[in-house]
């Protein structure tokens, strides 16, 4: 029961990082001091990685180009894919990096200001890496849903203000 | 046949039956037109989820339409749905109802209520129900020529209807007791032990029980007891339930009744002439809801629970005593400290702070001094409403 309650703190924070300890306490029924302790500990243990804001940059007229890059690599003795993944994720252009099963090994979400910028990163930084065998770059044409949020607002609530 | 011919219309008033003229309009909708014309109103006056129906349920209905499911179903409803409900009632409550003649698919609990009253009441029969209670309870009895008999309940008793209070009101015309827990408008839940006392009374006086369990899945930290599971009660209970609240499906108009064959047959007899059947796409959606919406329901319950805590604490913080609701999605705080009536309070609050609530008196005389506030509303809206109400209380508190 207690465990389940603590989970509610994280679930709520994941949806809205701005919730205060007092609000979290009111929502879950856990005393404020305990909420604070739980959150602090989670920050320290890197259970909470960071508090971020989801922004629809396109609405601000900011161009941002995204690409999903599939990378085939030759795994290395002892370290497998980890060492190449580390090489890759240190580039700031690599927004997210995953090891994937299937026809390729590493999936990278790359962002840049222009297509050119992304292309340069792939061809000059990524492809020449020693163990990289091949790359396939998919430019993202339109973003519909991200991190569980529907861009453009979704459906809206169609409820009448007074109902039985 | 001449009796069935329409009366000559003289004035527009004359063409309405006395019975309907005397039926008061629902107190909930009183401020509706006003609110619709105002801007910036936060409404806690709703009686439905703020979620849209889970996507897989909607998708199942869209698929049904694509496949051409646009016809009538049998009067009692799609066999697959009745079968699924029968399975649900066994696994969820341990109750075994025969899908062929003990389950009827209705157009919401609303239709179920209407059917059951018309099926079991002789003119002048009495039906006992709590005060305050959902607005359709007394109306459905009245429309079936019965007499609604109200049992006062109060905050001190956690708004639970008590066997001893019912007993005082039983006459030889008493036909049934109508209960709906978790309750609209109070959020009250009755524990099993106390329901057992009710069951004994029912047995002793040879009564029926109509149990509206539409909020049965929306309980917080307590268990809901399905009345039909109590010893000897399955034969005497007409179980009404539906998909509106737990599955966020209010607009689909779909529900069901489960009871002994004779009663279901009688209800179906009326249903076949007045409704024919529930909409087929809604029935298909209901099948999908039963198949796999457990996770969504659980998540909604968790969210309601969080908002419930915020609202109840919020009312207490601004100086309103608030009974802790254990089910449904309503809080029922007392506004007695202001010295206003529920109606005055609700109207003034709407005009001065643009927060819409429902006066407790919409649900019966015992609702005087209370307001119904729905917490199926987003947290930021609840917090803003509480802020506005805090200011309002400060201004309007005598002394
Ligand atoms: C207690 C109660 N019963 C029944 C209903 C109506 O349910 P349905 O949508 O299934 O007709 C409501 C709706 O507010 C309710 O609060």
Task: Fill in the keyword field for this structure.
heterodimer, A: 164 residues, alpha+beta, Alpha-Beta Plaits, four-stranded antiparallel sheet, 34% helix, 21% strand, B: 399 residues, alpha/beta, Aspartate Aminotransferase, domain 1, Aspartate Aminotransferase, domain 2, seven-stranded mixed sheet, three-stranded antiparallel sheet, 40% helix, binds pyridoxal-5'-phosphate
Greatest chain-chain interface? A-B, 18 and 30 residues
Largest sheet of chain B: 7 strands, mixed
Major sheet attributes of chain A: 4 strands, antiparallel
* Strand segment count of chain B: 12
Q: Note the gap between the termini of chain A.
A: 34 Å
What is the strand tally of chain A? 6
The main sheet of chain A orders its strands as 2-3-1-4
The name of the CATH superfamily of the largest domain in chain B reads Type I PLP-dependent aspartate aminotransferase-like (Major domain)
Summarize the structure.
The complex is a heterodimer of chains A (164) and B (399). By secondary structure, chain A is α+β, with helices and mostly antiparallel strands.
Structure overview:
The complex is a heterodimer of chains A (164) and B (399). Chain A has 164 residues and is an alpha+beta fold. Helix content of chain A is 34%, strand content 21%. Chain A folds into two domains: 3-44; 57-142, Alpha-Beta Plaits. The mean pLDDT of chain A is 90. With 399 residues, chain B is of the alpha/beta class. Chain B has helices at residues 18-22, 32-37, 55-66, 79-93, 108-120, 136-143, 163-169, 192-204, 261-274, 280-292, 294-317, 342-353, 379-396, and strands at 42-43, 103-106, 126-131, 147-152, 174-179, 208-212, 237-242, 255-258, 330-331, 355-356, 358-359, 371-374. In chain B, helix 4 (79-93) runs parallel beside helix 10. The relative contact order of chain B is 0.16. The A-B interface holds A 8, 11-12, 16, 23, 26-29, 155, 157-164 and B 26, 28-29, 31-32, 35-36, 41, 43, 45-48, 50, 52, 134-136, 250, 302, 306-307, 309-310, 313-314, 356, 358, 379, 383. The structure holds pyridoxal-5'-phosphate. Pyridoxal-5'-phosphate binds next to helix 5 of chain B.
């Amino acid at each position: 029961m207690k465990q389940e309650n603590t989970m509610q703190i994280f679930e709520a924070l994941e949806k809205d990082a701005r919730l205060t300890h007092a609000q979290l306490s009111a929502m879950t029924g856990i005393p404020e001091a305990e909420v604070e302790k739980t959150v602090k500990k989670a920050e320290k243990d890197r259970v909470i990685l960071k508090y971020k804001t989801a922004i629809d940059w396109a609405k601000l007229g900011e161009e941002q180009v995204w690409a999903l890059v599939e990378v085939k690599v030759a795994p290395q003795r002892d370290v497998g894919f980890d060492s190449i993944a580390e090489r890759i994720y240190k580039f700031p252009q690599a927004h997210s990096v995953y090891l994937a099963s299937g026809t390729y090994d590493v999936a990278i979400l790359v962002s840049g200001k222009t297509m050119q910028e992304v292309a340069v990163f792939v061809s000059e930084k990524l492809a020449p890496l020693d163990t990289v065998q091949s790359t396939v770059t998919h430019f993202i044409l339109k973003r519909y849903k991200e991190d569980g949020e529907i861009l453009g607002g979704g459906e809206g609530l169609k409820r009448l203000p007074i109902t039985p | 046949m001449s009796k069935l011919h329409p009366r000559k219309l003289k004035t527009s008033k004359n063409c309405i039956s006395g019975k309907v003229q005397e039926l008061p309009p629902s107190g909930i909708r009183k401020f509706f037109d006003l609110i619709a014309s105002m801007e910036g109103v936060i409404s806690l006056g709703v009686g439905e989820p703020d979620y849209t129906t889970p996507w897989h349920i909607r998708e199942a209905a869209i698929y049904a339409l694509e496949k051409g499911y646009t016809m009538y179903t049998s009067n009692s409803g799609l066999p697959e749905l009745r079968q699924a409900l029968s399975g649900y009632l066994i696994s969820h409550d341990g109750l075994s109802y025969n899908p062929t003649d003990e389950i009827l698919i209705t157009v919401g609990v609303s239709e179920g209520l209407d059917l059951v009253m018309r099926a079991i009441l002789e003119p002048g029969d009495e039906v006992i129900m709590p005060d305050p209670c959902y607005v359709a309870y007394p109306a459905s009895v009245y429309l079936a020529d019965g007499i609604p008999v109200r049992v006062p309940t109060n905050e001190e008793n956690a708004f639970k209807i008590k066997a001893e209070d019912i007993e005082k009101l039983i006459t030889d015309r008493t036909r049934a007791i109508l209960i709906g827990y978790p309750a609209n408008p109070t959020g009250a839940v009755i524990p099993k032990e106390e329901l057992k006392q009710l069951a004994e009374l029912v047995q002793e006086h040879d009564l029926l029980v109509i149990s509206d369990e539409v909020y049965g899945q929306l309980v917080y930290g307590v268990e809901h007891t399905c009345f039909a599971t109590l010893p000897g009660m399955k034969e005497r209970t007409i179980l009404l339930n539906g998909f509106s609240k737990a599955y966020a499906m209010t607009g689909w108009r779909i529900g069901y009744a489960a009871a002994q064959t004779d009663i279901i047959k009688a209800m179906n007899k009326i249903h076949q002439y007045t409704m024919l059947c529930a909409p087929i796409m809604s029935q298909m959606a209901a099948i999908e809801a039963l198949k796999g919406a457990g996770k969504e329901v659980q998540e909604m319950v968790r969210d309601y629970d969080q908002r419930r805590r915020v609202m109840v604490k919020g009312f207490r913080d601004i100086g309103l005593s608030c009974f802790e609701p254990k089910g449904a999605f309503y809080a029922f705080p007392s506004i007695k400290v202001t010295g206003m009536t529920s109606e005055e309070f609700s109207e003034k609050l709407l005009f001065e702070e643009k927060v819409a609530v429902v006066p407790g008196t919409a649900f019966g005389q015992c609702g005087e001094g209370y307001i119904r506030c729905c917490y199926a509303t987003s947290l930021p809206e609840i917090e803003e409403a509480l802020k506005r109400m805090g200011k309002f209380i400060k201004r309007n508190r005598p002394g």
